[in-house]
Design goal:
Aminopeptidase; alpha+beta; homodimer
Chain lengths: 161, 161
C-alpha cells in the first residue's frame, strides 16, 4: 500500500478526507489546514509531518505526526484519517506503520496519542489498541465534564523491526 | 502572604528568581522570559498567566499557569519557583494556592503539572504531593532514556473552598 509524503496541491484532498470521516467538526478541519500549512513551511520548523495514501488520483487517507516538545524520544501522532470511500482496506494500519517507521528513522522510540473518550472516537481508540498501543492513562473530566483524556502509547524500540 | 499579578518591570527580577534556584538551565531561563512576554502581550491571547510574591522591593517567587489547549476544565501549571533567599517560608505553597484560586475563578476544575523524573526535580515532586497532587502517570523514557514524564494532577472542584 503506497504511503508517501503529500504534495502542496494535496491540501484540498486532505481536507476532503477529514470532512468525509464525519467525525470532525469544522474547527477540527481548520486545524488540519493549519497543520498542513505548517508542514509546507517546513517540518523542521513547525514540527508537523504528513504522510498520505494515494488511491489513483485521490487521497484515501493521511497521518500527521511530529516530535514532542522537550522530548528526545517521543513523537505525537496528531491525526490519522481515512476517507469514507477507502475505509476497511487497511489504509489506517498502513499509515500507522509508516508513522512508526518515520519516527524510528528520526531516532525516536515512543509514539504518544492524545485522544478523547467521546463515543465518536471509539473506533479510533479500538484502532490504536489493534495497532499495539496501550492506554497509558485515562484522566477523568480532562476535556470537559464527562469527557476524559485517553493517552495511548507505543514503544517502538521494543518491537521487531 | 501577598501574592499579586506582577508588573512588566518585574521581568528581570523574575529571571533572577529562576536563576537563583540553581535548578534551571539557561534555555529554561529563556523559556520563562518568553512566557512572561506572552503574559505581557495578554494572557487571553498567549494563555500565560503569572502570579508573584513580592518581598519588599524584591520578587521572592512566581508561578506561571494557563488554560490547557482544547480543554474546558484543565489548567497547566508550568512553573513555580522561589528564590534561594525566600525558600523555606511557605512561598511556594502560597503561590500554589493562588494558582488554584485563579483556576477556580476561571471556571476550571483540574490542575495538571508535567514534570520530569530528573533527580534535581525531586524537591518539586515532593512539593506537588504535599500540595495534594497525585502522580497520575509516570511514562518511562519520555524525555530521554532514563528520564520519565511525571504528570501530577489535582481536582479542585472536590476540595473545600
Amino acid at each position: 500500500m503506497p504511503i508517501e509524503i503529500p504534495r502542496p496541491s494535496d491540501l484540498p484532498a486532505i481536507l476532503d478526507v477529514t470532512r468525509s470521516t464525519g467525525v470532525f467538526s469544522q474547527e477540527e478541519v481548520e486545524t488540519v489546514q493549519e497543520l498542513f500549512e505548517g508542514f509546507l513551511d517546513g517540518p523542521e520548523v513547525s514540527g508537523y509531518n504528513f504522510l498520505s495514501y494515494r488511491d489513483g488520483e485521490a487521497i484515501g487517507g493521511f497521518a500527521c505526526w511530529g516530535p514532542t516538545a522537550l522530548s528526545k524520544g517521543a513523537v505525537d501522532l496528531y491525526w490519522i484519517a481515512t476517507s469514507a470511500k477507502a475505509q476497511g482496506k487497511g489504509v489506517g494500519a498502513a499509515l500507522f506503520r509508516a508513522v512508526v517507521e518515520a519516527a524510528r528513522a528520526a531516532g525516536r522510540w515512543l509514539i504518544v496519542i492524545w485522544t478523547s473518550s467521546r463515543p465518536e472516537y471509539q473506533a479510533a481508540r479500538s484502532f490504536y489498541q489493534r495497532m499495539g498501543c496501550q492506554l497509558t492513562v485515562r484522566l477523568p473530566d480532562f476535556y470537559d465534564y464527562g469527557e476524559d483524556l485517553c493517552v495511548f502509547t507505543l514503544r517502538i524500540d521494543q518491537l521487531q523491526a
